[in-house]
Amino acid sequence: LMHKVSISQEKAIKEISGAARDNELEIINLNAAEKRPYANSPAGFAIDEVPLSMHVTGGYRKIGEFLLRLHGDFPVLVRVVRLTMKGKGHGGNILDADLQLIAYVKR
Questions:
Q1: DSSP label at 42?
Q2: Which of 19, 20, 57, 70 has the largest CB neighbor count within 10 A?
Q3: pTM for the model
Q4: Is the four-CA dihedral 58, 67, 10, 55 of positive or negative sign?
Q5: Alpha helix ranges (H) inside the chain
Q6: How far apart are alpha carbons 65 and 69 in whole angstroms?
């Protein structure tokens, strides 16, 4: 677990955006808020949390696969705080998704 939080903020954003593209999602925007100290860091570790907002467009299954990838064996510890999806167009399976994420990185 600690190896997942030993990367930089820049690397975390690169990994998350790369995973979205690998799952054929179009990234409309990806914004990072100011990182803040993680209050529950284990003794001897300095961990920050980086709030991220991300808007993507893609198929329902592709969005699901992206979320599973973030949850599974992913090199960054990421928490999905909020997810909202809405259909894009008439009758298709293309969705707009807004995600609020927290990435945990080294200080």
A1: P
A2: 20
A3: 0.90
A4: positive
A5: 9-22, 60-71
A6: 6
